[in-house]
């Protein structure tokens, strides 16, 4: 109807809208907008633009920004428009300003004055417009300028103003709580406002307040309960009803508040039981809004002090949701179940098959929600199945954001509930293999620590078994043809789809291995030869393979050579003759001449160590000493006497780097003709880093840093591993230097004496260790998940839920399966019967009813009818704009009718039907109007006028 | 309720209305809209009307060729902190979208994409009445439309 009064805009505007509407690609749209920007730039500065015209220009600016282009050239005109006397223009001006500017924009200062003036206006609509702007534009500094006025407006005679004033104060509270702490009591007063709209709005700030401080609002429980009761009993004006439900959005907000207030508070909770029970009983489970309220009730019930009666009602409601064919409802059901199991985990058991259905559903949203539920109900008896499933899912997706999330959850669950260390190691290996670049590097350390510490008991045989199994598993992983390429293949989809988002991801094939290879090298180095199954030369050969496979990666080579050093020294310490494979020899030789000082250092250390005798070796590299504490004299006090002596002999005192930098010219010069690799060691001045060398050496590191930046979103990154760079940068440029700390933590100080190298890392792992003692690793005698081929689902159910009950340990395998069978058969039956009664129709399917056969039968295509009314020859491409809602009602009546076989609510469906008539006329009317305005659809069926049902 | 944006986007991914309740730069908006629309368009109508996207949970609903998308805070789930409050009620948001469409329908009479395009500011005004500070503040159609009707009369 509003539109029937004429569009009221110029042809130019209509043409713009039309051309935007008709553009069929982003590029075309961009061209239109760019042209529009040029036009507006010229026009908007012309003198004496009529106000109406100006308003149109402002809306055109809004279009430009909405479509992703910069319209800042016109901001000032929007600001000017807020000064206008005409309400419509003023409000349009405010709207444009709130869309264009953020709170800290320079132009805001020009608006504050206008806002102040408008807040005083006699016209309450002007005051409302200003209050809208207050919510969006006032920042911390400008709050005082309007605060007093806003507070006064809380008691304005017009309810619309009071409502907006409440929200403005709410905004101030959000922005800067301290500025309004003395005013929050006003919210309590406004809760009793006699206008339901104001009361409803006040719930928003009160919710925020209560969330921060529950206890000081306990006295309001009675008020909230009584308001909720009145709302539920339809005491509010009819206009708040939505689909025959009384003020559902207010009910939901109140339930959220009650959930907060009743949490862990028996007395408050008891006041709520009756009303929550009533609402649950009354809620209309055939409508979305009824289910939304029901869901909120379940949330509330699971949050407040438990009541057996409400718990039962909530469980029944969940059962209904989960049985639904509508994905949205099942989703809500799964979510609600995740909440209710906090009160009693057993409630999940009766829904096991529904849960597994959701888990196996192709809908990713539902699947993810179900994983969330499983994550919440994981315990030591089902951790294996759940984590296996999660890893499987993790492998299947290529969205790094969720991969990271799932990987970290797998790690968390595994660390918390691992039934055996062996399983833990295998699980971690899988996570590393598939998401090594995404997990926190700390995880690798936890794993290495676990292997080093074993069971923490004095069970040496078990420990060594664990270690040999770790060695075995890593040798197997390496045995898989060509480590890097396999990993790259696995990650190809990731690579391809994410390469655009960040170039660093291109390195992910390599990085994947980082965590993995770090662990592999370390384990092989420490324990490769420990059980005597593998010879030192065999392990050495494997380590060389690793180094060769990553010949471009200094970090990996550093891992490998250090591990090799350990293997060699243990071998010698054990008094065995050391056979170095020729490939090992050549590796060491090549590393001795490496560009990386770190690798050189390591290689030379290795050579030096090999030449020592067994006893010295034992001291330098004690066997399996990674958990021993090592004391480090950080102040180097043992050198004091030496330093003293040197000083006495006339040596120069030590200068700090800062002091040295003043005398840099000399050292720099001396440094210049030195050996290439040492350019890094004696440089005190930040001259330009030689580009080619860096690029050859740094790619892995550079990418590491970048990737780390990406990763930081999901977890805090502790340290960075890149020893090669660490030593490179030891005295080098600033940014490189920063990473040195991480290096020391990981692999010891490579530039120190060889003995310090493993031991520093050991001491590191030991310190971390103190915090991790609480982990519960249970003996490996746990039951195996019996997932077999037939009746796979049942087995899965049994393994997931079998252990849910407290008495699970005994009845687990047998009882779990039996129970699930029973449930299953009944569930199948119900499903079969429901299938007969009504074919599954998505109630929310309001779009094109193309998919559902049942939908199309009862849907009337308005364009079929249109064609009858309009001469098809002449208007073969007639602009038809069917209205959205009639389409909706169309589909709704379809689905409604299907549903109504149960509900008997057919009148609603057919009621919607009657709107079809006017719809057609309207569509034609609008069409005609548009044509009158001169907007004629182009011949090639433009999108805007397109037959939407076709 | 933590609404962070309301978007109307057509099937071709063209934005028809955008209202953000937190500040994002033009580039961020452009990227976000592109990603979200791509995600939602890829889904079929049997699937949930909810999609997770980074820190957002997106509730969307399709009317003819127009998608209505509402971004809400995504709930953080952790085992240690099992009591999560800031959870959105996705179904309620879904119905909120419908309320918005019904309101527009009452005003425009059989609302269509063109109505929103030609009366962009009015669509915004309605949204301004319904949502403030990311919270649903008004759900009575009469109250939502009253100021707009008064304004129409005055001008």
TrEMBL record, chain B:
Pfam families: Clat_adaptor_s. One of its GO terms (cellular component) is endomembrane system. It is found in: Endomembrane system. Its main location: membrane. Keywords: Membrane, Protein transport, Transport. Residues 3-154 form the AP complex mu/sigma subunit domain. Gene3D superfamilies: 3.30.450.60. It comes from the Eukaryota. GO terms for biological process: intracellular protein transport. InterPro entries: AP_complex_ssu (IPR016635), AP_mu_sigma_su (IPR022775), Longin-like_dom_sf (IPR011012). Belongs to the adaptor complexes small subunit family. This is AP complex subunit sigma. The lineage of its organism: Eukaryota, Viridiplantae, Streptophyta, Embryophyta, Tracheophyta.
């Amino acid at each position: 109807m509003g539109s029937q009064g004429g569009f009221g805009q110029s042809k130019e505007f209509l043409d713009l809208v039309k051309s935007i509407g008709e553009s069929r690609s982003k590029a075309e749209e961009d061209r239109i907008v760019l042209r529009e920007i040029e036009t507006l730039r010229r026009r908007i500065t012309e003198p004496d633009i009529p106000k109406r015209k100006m308003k149109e220009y402002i809306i055109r600016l809004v279009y430009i920004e909405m479509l992703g282009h910069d319209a800042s050239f016109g901001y000032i005109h929007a600001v000017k428009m807020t000064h206008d006397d005409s309400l419509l223009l003023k409000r349009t001006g405010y709207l444009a300003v709130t869309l264009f500017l953020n709170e800290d924009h320079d132009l805001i200062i020009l608006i504050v004055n206008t806002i102040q003036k408008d807040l005083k206006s006699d016209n309450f609509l002007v005051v409302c417009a200003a209050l809208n702007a207050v919510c969006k534009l006032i920042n911390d500094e400008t709050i005082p300028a309007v605060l007093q006025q806003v507070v006064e407006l809380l008691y304005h005679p017009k309810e619309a103003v009071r409502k907006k004033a409440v929200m403005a104060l709410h905004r101030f509270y959000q922005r800067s709580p301290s500025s309004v702490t003395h005013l929050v009591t006003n919210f309590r007063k406004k809760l009793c406002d006699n206008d339901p709209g104001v009361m409803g709005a006040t719930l928003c700030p009160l919710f925020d307040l209560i969330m921060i401080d529950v206890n000081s609002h306990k006295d309001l429980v009675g008020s909230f309960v009584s308001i909720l009761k009145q709302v539920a009993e339809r005491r509010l004006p009819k206009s708040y009803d939505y689909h025959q439900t009384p003020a559902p959005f207010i009910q939901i907000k109140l339930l959220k508040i009650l959930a907060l207030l009743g949490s862990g508070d028996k007395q408050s909770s008891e006041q709520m039981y009756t009303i929550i029970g009533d609402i649950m009983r009354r809620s209309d489970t055939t409508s979305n809004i009824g289910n939304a309220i029901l869901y909120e009730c379940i949330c509330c019930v699971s949050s407040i002090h438990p009541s057996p009666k409400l718990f039962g009602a909530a469980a029944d409601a969940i059962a209904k949701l989960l049985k639904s064919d509508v994905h949205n409802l099942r989703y809500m059901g799964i979510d609600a179940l995740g909440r209710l199991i906090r009160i009693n985990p057993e409630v999940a058991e009766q829904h096991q098959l529904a849960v597994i259905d959701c888990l196996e559903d192709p809908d990713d949203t539902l699947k993810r929600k179900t994983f969330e539920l499983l994550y919440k109900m994981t315990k030591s008896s089902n951790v294996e199945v759940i984590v296996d499933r999660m890893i499987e899912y993790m492998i299947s997706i290529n969205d790094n954001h969720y991969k990271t999330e799932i990987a970290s959850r797998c790690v968390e669950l595994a660390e918390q509930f691992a039934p055996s260390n062996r399983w833990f190691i295998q699980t971690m290996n899988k996570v590393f293999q598939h998401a090594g670049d995404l997990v926190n590097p700390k995880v690798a350390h936890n794993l290495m620590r676990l292997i080093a510490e074993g069971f923490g008991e004095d069970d040496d045989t078990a420990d060594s078994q664990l270690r040999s199994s770790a060695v075995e598993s890593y040798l197997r992983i390496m045995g898989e043809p060509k480590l890097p390429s396999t990993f790259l293949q696995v990650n190809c989809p990731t690579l391809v789809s994410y390469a655009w988002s960040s170039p660093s991801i291109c390195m992910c094939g390599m990085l994947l291995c980082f965590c993995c290879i770090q662990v592999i090298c370390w384990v092989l180095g420490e324990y490769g030869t420990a059980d005597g199954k593998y010879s030192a030369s065999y392990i050495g050969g494997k380590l060389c393979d690793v180094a060769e496979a990553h010949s471009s990666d200094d970090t990996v080579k550093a891992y490998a050579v250090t591990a090799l050093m350990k293997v060699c020294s243990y071998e010698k310490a054990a008094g065995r003759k050391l056979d170095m494979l020729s490939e090992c020899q050549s590796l060491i030789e090549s590393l001795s001449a490496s560009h990386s000082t770190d690798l050189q250092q390591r290689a030379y250390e290795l050579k030096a160590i090999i030449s020592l005798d067994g006893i010295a070796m034992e001291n330098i590299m004690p066997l399996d000493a990674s958990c021993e504490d090592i004391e480090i004299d950080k102040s180097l006090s043992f050198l004091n006497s030496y330093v003293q002596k040197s000083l006495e002999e006339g040596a120069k005192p030590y200068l700090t780097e800062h002091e040295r930098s003043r005398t840099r010219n000399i050292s720099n010069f001396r440094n210049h003709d030195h050996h290439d690799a040492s350019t890094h060691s004696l440089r005190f001045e930040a001259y330009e880093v030689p580009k080619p060398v860096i690029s050859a050496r740094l790619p892995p590191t550079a990418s590491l840093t970048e990737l780390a930046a990406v990763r930081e979103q999901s977890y805090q990154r502790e340290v960075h591993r890149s020893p090669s760079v660490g030593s490179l940068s030891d005295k080098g440029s600033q940014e490189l230097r920063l990473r040195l700390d991480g290096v020391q933590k990981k692999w010891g100080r490579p530039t120190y004496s060889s003995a310090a190298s493993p031991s520093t890392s050991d001491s590191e792992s030991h310190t971390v260790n103190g915090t991790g003692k609480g982990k519960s690793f249970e003996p490996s005698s746990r039951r195996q998940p019996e997932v077999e081929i037939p009746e796979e689902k049942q087995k899965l159910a049994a393994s997931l839920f079998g252990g849910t009950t407290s008495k699970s340990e005994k009845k687990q395998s047998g009882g779990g399966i039996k129970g699930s069978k029973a449930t299953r058969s009944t569930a199948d039956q119900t499903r079969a019967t429901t299938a007969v009664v009504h074919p599954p129709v998505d109630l929310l399917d309001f779009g094109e009813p193309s998919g559902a056969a049942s939908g199309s039968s009862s849907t009337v295509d308005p364009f079929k009818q249109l064609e009858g009314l309009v001469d098809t020859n002449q208007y073969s491409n007639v602009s038809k704009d069917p209205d959205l809602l009639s389409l909706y009602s169309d589909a709704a009546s379809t689905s409604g009718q299907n549903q109504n076989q149960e509900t008997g609510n057919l009148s609603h469906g057919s009621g919607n039907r009657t709107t079809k008539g006017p719809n057609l006329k309207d569509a034609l009317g609008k069409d005609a109007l548009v044509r009158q305005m001169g907007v004629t659809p182009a011949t090639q069926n433009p999108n805007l006028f397109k037959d939407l049902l076709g | 309720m933590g609404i962070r944006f309301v978007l109307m986007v057509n099937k071709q991914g063209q934005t028809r209305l955008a209202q953000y309740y937190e500040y994002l730069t033009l580039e961020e908006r452009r990227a976000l809209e592109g990603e979200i629309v791509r995600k939602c368009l890829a889904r079929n109508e049997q699937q949930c009307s909810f999609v997770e996207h980074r820190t957002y949970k997106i509730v969307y609903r399709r009317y003819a060729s127009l998608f209505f998308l509402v971004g809400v805070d995504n709930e953080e789930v952790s085992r240690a902190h099992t009591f999560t409050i800031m959870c959105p009620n996705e179904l309620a948001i879904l119905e909120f979208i419908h309320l918005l469409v019904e309101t527009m329908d009452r005003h425009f009479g059989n609302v269509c994409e063109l109505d929103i395009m030609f009366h962009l500011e009015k669509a915004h005004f309605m949204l301004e009445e319904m949502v403030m500070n990311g919270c649903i503040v008004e759900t009575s159609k009469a109250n939502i439309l009253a100021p707009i009707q008064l304004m129409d009369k005055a001008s």
